[in-house]
Amino acid sequence: MTYKVFVDGQEGTTGLRINEYLANRSDIEVLRIAPERRKDTDERARLLNAADVAFLCLPDAAAKEAAALVNNPNTCVIDASTAHRTASDWVFGLPELAPDQRDRIRASKRISNPGCHSTAFILLLRPLVDAGLVAPTLPVSATSITGYSGGGKKMIEQYEAGGDPKLDAPRPYGLTLAHKHVPEMSAHTGLKTPPIFQPIVGPFLKGLAVSVPLHLSQLKAGTTPDALHKALADRYAGERFVRVQPLRDAATLESGFFDVQANNDTNNVDVFVFANDSQAILMCRIDNLGKGASGAAVQSMNVHLGVDESLGLV
Ligand SMILES: NC(=O)C1=CN([C@@H]2O[C@H](COP(=O)(O)OP(=O)(O)OC[C@H]3O[C@@H](n4cnc5c(N)ncnc54)[C@H](OP(=O)(O)O)[C@@H]3O)[C@@H](O)[C@H]2O)C=CC1
Ligand SMILES: CC(=O)N[C@@H](CCC(=O)OP(=O)(O)O)C(=O)O
Questions:
Q1: What's 62's domain CATH number?
Q2: pLDDT digits (tens, 9 = 90+) for 278-300
Q3: Is the CB of residue 150 below 6 angstroms from any atom belonging to ligand 1?
Q4: In terms of residue numbers, what domain contains 58?
């Protein structure tokens, strides 16, 4: 069986990476749009409706427009933008979210691909909320350090042009306290209080780590670091891409520094619990262009099509 796939936004950061993942797949035929027609609505509509799977790798407004062009009931749309991540008629494309999430991805023709920061945040918090260790009302804060490819073509060009010394240092942003990932972080963890979320972009291409500090006294009475670690390890046991590292990961502690880039060029997710007797820092590491974007989109496509979930992914 060969599936037809169209990538709307094939020249962008996410679209190019998806095409790389698909390049060696004998079960996929990629429908290419002529470069000069890549913003021609009629041609995009034709290809969107000719596809079994259409990836939208576009800014939000263009993604909404593209979704509205699809009238073939057999086309599965996987939207990489923020446009549909909390929409009730779209399924969140994070197979590891909950035990029934793969069934939902398989059944739906509208899949929203999670944001990079929110992927890491949700994978840390959702199991702890589900296990009752973190109350849904707990006010949670998180920081994220990310490579500049998360900002798309414009930010990549800005960093790679060189010459601006401000870009040599990490740059905190999201200081309006309204980062676009906060709604999906709340919606898919069950946290009723929107997290305070502060990302930082640094002078490296890719790699991302979200950190969530927790006071154990604010968790379910008696929660220990072992209990936090066990809830995460139990949830992700058997997951192909999520690896819960040993409590207080010795390799990281010995080096003294956390390696944000260690999952680059993979679809892997590493989950960490660092803790003392009264406090913990949870950390989650991904490649923002891998599990944070294009890898996740291909994984959801695989789940939807019912083929091996890791096909084409490392
Ligand atoms: N970069 C990342 O790590 C991640 C990005 N995303 C999301 O994925 C989407 C794409 O992001 P990214 O790949 O980084 O963005 P880029 O800016 O790198 O690429 C976007 C592409 O869309 C094209 N485009 C813009 N408007 C239209 C239109 N109306 N019709 C057809 N094509 C259009 C652009 O064309 P042109 O080349 O002419 O500008 C460009 O090639 C965004 O919604 C983003 O939020 C999601 C997860 C991670
Ligand atoms: C460095 C940088 O700007 N990163 C982007 C996130 C990119 C991403 O994965 O999120 P979307 O899918 O929602 O675009 C940001 O924080 O807005």
A1: 3.40.50.720
A2: 999 999 999 999 999 999 999 99
A3: yes
A4: 3-114+292-305
